What we know:
This protein has 3 helices and no strands. By secondary structure, the chain is mainly alpha-helical. It has a domain at 10-55. The longest helix is centred in the middle third of the chain and has 28 residues, at 27-54.
Amino acid sequence: MIETPISLTEKESESLQFLARQMGKTPNELIKEAVAKLLNQFDEETLRKNRMAAAGIWRDRDDIPDLREMRGSAERFHLREEQK
């Protein structure tokens, strides 16, 4: 684990100490939880943005088969196989 010093104002430090006592945790635990939550939120936001950017990228492509047509062909094939 890497130790990273942080700088807090006196008010922030007092508030952190108070909150830690109220929650039965150490200030260090609260800071670790806050960092983990921030990183998790960033990761989720990044994933959401990437999904939105990728939405519809195949829409105007004419060099790939139509998914509905492929699915229909596969379903017809499986029906024929089941009837044998």
